[in-house]
Write a structure and sequence with these properties.
By secondary structure, the protein is α/β, with parallel strands linked by helices. The protein is built from 7 helices and 4 strands. It has a single domain, classed as Rossmann fold, CATH 3.40.50.2300. The two termini are 31 Å apart. It binds 4-nitrophenyl phosphate (4NP).
């Protein structure tokens, strides 16, 4: 038997390198840092090695810490995201991450617009499709509302991150 040549397409991502997951929203101070915090926490709990980051499609809050309401909500669940800092999505993220999870259709459009190949476009996924496949439903933006909005964001992201990690392990 000869030595087989294994192409990148035939090797699952997790066998080539640690899977690299990017969470994206508009401001990178509410939904995506919450998603990254939940993912980081759950991966640690489950003993799964991943690379993770989050960013925003806008430049509104670059270098800022997450919104206090997001930090407080996450702390209620024992997760500290106060160390995270906002940055803006950039084209290079398509090369540096295997999967790019966006929170809503507006994020999706903004990210897809920057993709210059089908391979890059295929990396972009609506995060709630993890729990409601094919629904393309949004994680509602909690920025203008009260703590209730942050609670429902937490609940949706918690379920979604579990599913994401189920595929990785
Ligand atoms: P995020 O929420 O996209 O979940 O971080 C927002 C934060 C800030 C703004 C909008 C949404 N803003 O317009 O400044």
């Amino acid at each position: 038997m000869g030595i087989g040549v294994v192409s990148a397409e035939t090797v699952p991502i997790f066998l080539m390198h640690m899977v690299r997951l990017l969470m994206v929203c508009l401001g990178n101070i509410c939904r995506s840092p919450m998603a990254e915090g939940i993912l980081r926490h759950k991966a640690q709990e489950r003993g799964i090695d991943i690379e993770h980051d989050s960013c925003g499609t806008s430049n509104y809050h670059i270098a800022e810490a997450p919104d206090d309401r997001a930090v407080d909500k996450m702390a209620q669940y024992g997760i500290d995201i106060s160390d995270l800092r906002a940055r803006q999505f950039k084209s290079k993220d398509f090369d540096e991450f295997d999967r790019i999870y966006v929170m809503d259709q507006s994020n999706y459009r903004d990210v897809i617009r920057m993709a210059d190949s089908e391979e890059k476009k295929a990396k972009v996924k609506m995060i709630l499709n993890e729990i409601h496949p094919g629904s393309d439903s949004p994680v509602p933006d909690p920025w203008f509302g009260g703590m209730d909005g942050f609670e429902s964001v937490y609940q949706l992201l918690e379920l979604s991150c579990d599913k994401i990690l189920d595929h990785v392990k």
